[in-house]
Each structure stands twice: as structure tokens, then as C-alpha cells.
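Input sequence (461 aa), recorded before submission:
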Amino acid sequence: MPIATVNPANGETLKTYDALGAEEIERRLATADAAFRTYRTTSFAERARLMRRAADLLEEDTQDTARVMTTEMGKPIKQARAEVAKCAKAMRWYADHAEELLADEEALESEARDSGASRVLVRYRPLGPVLAVMPWNFPLWQVIRFAAPALMAGNVGLLKHASNVPQTALYLEDLFHRAGFPEGCFQTLLIGSGEVEGILRDERVRAATLTGSEPAGRAVASVAGDEVKKTVLELGGSDPYVVMPSADLDRAAKTAVTARVQNTGQSCIAAKRFIVHTDVFDAFAERFTAGMKALKVGDPLDEDTDVGPLSSEQGRDGLAELVDEAVESGATVLCGGERSDRPGWYYPPTVLADVTPAMRIHREETFGPVATLYRAAGLDEAVTIANDSPFGLSSNVWTRDEADIDRFVRDLEAGGVYLNGMTASHPAFPFGGVKRSGYGRELSGHGIREFCNITTVWHGA
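Predicted structure, C-alpha cell format:
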């Protein structure tokens, strides 16, 4: 794939970039290695000062940065501005909390004595240069939720961003440079996917994090495993959205629309499979379908647009194929389901009912504004349908019954259970999945410790 900005609203190529050559890649790896040797010794106060400055600059750049994101991958402009604000919030959160999250942990005196020590503590030390392989769908947020904790922990970052968002990738490097981070603390590598293995195998790179597709995750994990290097993977999701009889149907249906079409449906944590108890199925389906039909599809730079184009022609065509195959196999179209004839890579908000396990759309992630509806006879069947997926990123449950809540929290196979609301990441809470959605956690104290050397310091008696 060429490294280029191609406007998904009209297919126009706006900018192209040459990939880095071997000599420049080597220079950047050496720079990262040298930067880590000194940056790792900086104080939390100094790192926090730099991170807060980066957050300030990011907010000052909101309008231009949001417009670049929208032009590169089609995100509605209002959502692009919200992404900028969310990134600045996370940067300040880690600036405020990193020192306490990584503070030395003193063992109990009795336990230290039992080991023959006068004192034992646990210290969190940075690992070194971390390679981040990031996707296009949240081109700022996906990077910042890695970079903010990694830099605050004393690590340095090497970013291999998606090839269709090069301007955003270069902006991130410039942002940290302007904020005053030492040279080499955060570098963008404009490279193709074929260069990732060589970089990951370099002994100066100590770990990797990837957000993206399952095949990409497998490839990075395989190389990292061969090199015995730590990885964190956040892969696909096909999140269930369960609605039980005690739910507030109006709120559940209204929130369901947002949960499905956030970022034009191109979100790993977007609700995708809507599992509704039979007692309220028809009422929910009517409300939900009406909400999906009412969405405005259009130019993502238009302030009134709810749903923009998909990021690529390949993505639009793949989504359409899933829908077409499901309909041919007996799925019922409640709205949408037909490709747009307008310029650009648009697909209409679509709701399908009567989906069966034999259909590809039942097992594969729908990365776009397409929802599948399932009818569940009771709680047991709702749990079974929800867990009948290779993915386990997050989940949403609407019920006011405490027994229902206890059961769903106990039995849903997911990294998160959101009750009477939609899944949304927040810097204070861990984020990640199970099964083929990956492993490890981002955000919160769990995220910042993923790329730390957890060191036992034992003092003899």
C-alpha cells in the first residue's frame, strides 16, 4: 500500500510520501536507543511538564489537526475535534498520575524478614524503545493512549502508523518535538508493513504494541515471541449489545444508534451485534431502525454529518460483500443494504435481522455502519449468542434487574461490561480484550505498567 493521503470522500490523492530507506531506519533506531539512555533518568516532574506542554499544543492545533484526520480517513469533523480533546485529556491524566502509579511498593516488614531481608520493595523501571504499530480509525487516540503512558514511564516510542494517515503520523512526531521532548523520544517511521519485522527483531527495540487486524496481530506476536519480547495486542471486536425486558427502551435504542455508528462504525469497540429479548424485540427494533434511518450521511467536513465515508474502497466493498451474502442467505434488511452511487466510499446505515450462525457476518467483524439484530428467548440464550464470537473486546448490557447484571458480569467473555450505557475508553480504566481481540491492557495503571521492568529490590538484613 502506498504511503499517501487519499480523501475517502472523493477518492482524490492529496499527498504521497516516500518510505524511509535502510540507512534512515538505522539512524532513527540509533537515535531512539541513545535517547532512552538519558531520558530514562529524567524525573516524573520533568516528563509531566513536557507532556502537559504537548497537550496544550495539541489543543491549540485542534481545528487544523481535526481537519487533517477527517481528510485522511473520513471521520466526521465533530468527532475529529472530540478525538483531539480526548487525547489532551489522557495526556494530562498521565502527567498527573504517572508518578503515583509507578511509585515504589514496599513489602510488609514481616514478609521482608521472612525472606531474610531488612527491606524489600518493587520498583517500576522503563524497558526501552517500544515499537507501536497503529491503525487509521482513531489516528490520534490510538497513538496517544500508547505514547502518553510509555513516555511518562520513561520509555521512548517508534511509531509505524497506517499508510493512509501519514500526515497525522508526522504531526505526532512534530507535536512531541515542539513540546520539548529530547530528540529521539518519539519518532514516526514512514515505512511499509514489510519493514516491521526487521525493526522488531532489532535488539535495541525492547517491546511492541499493536492495534489493528487479527492477521497483523498474529504477525507481530509471532516475531516478538521468536525474539522473546513483550507485546500488547488490541485486535478486532464484534461487541454484543444486549437488551433485556427491564431496560429503558427509548434510551437503549437511542444509545444503540450512537454505539453502532460512532466513527462511521469503524471502531473495534462499536456495538455490532444487537441481542434483544423476545419480549421487547419488536419495540426495540422499531426504535433502533428509525434512529438509523434518520442519520445524515454526507461530507465529513459538514458539521451536520453523522456518517461519513468508509476509509477505503476496499473497506467499503468488503462490508458490502458481507451484507450481500447475508441477504442472499436469508437475512432481512430493515434499512439500508445498498451501495451508494455518490462519489467516495460511502455505505448507508444498515440494520439486518434474521442473521444465522451460518452467515459470515455472524462470525466476522463488520467495520462500518451495519448492525445485526438477534432475538433471544431469555437470559441464557442472550449470553450464549453474545459469547458466540471469536472476539471478546467489550460488551454492553441494558437491564435494571440486579440478577441479570450479576449473571452478565460473571459470564460475558469480554474485557469490559458496560451496563446501561455504551462502551467508551477512558484514561483511568483498563482497556483491552480476550480471545481473538488480543491480550494485555492499555490505559490506567495497568496500561502504564505493561512496558515496565517490574523489579524486586531486596536488601539484606
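Checked by second reader. The chain has two domains: 3-235+437-460, 239-426.
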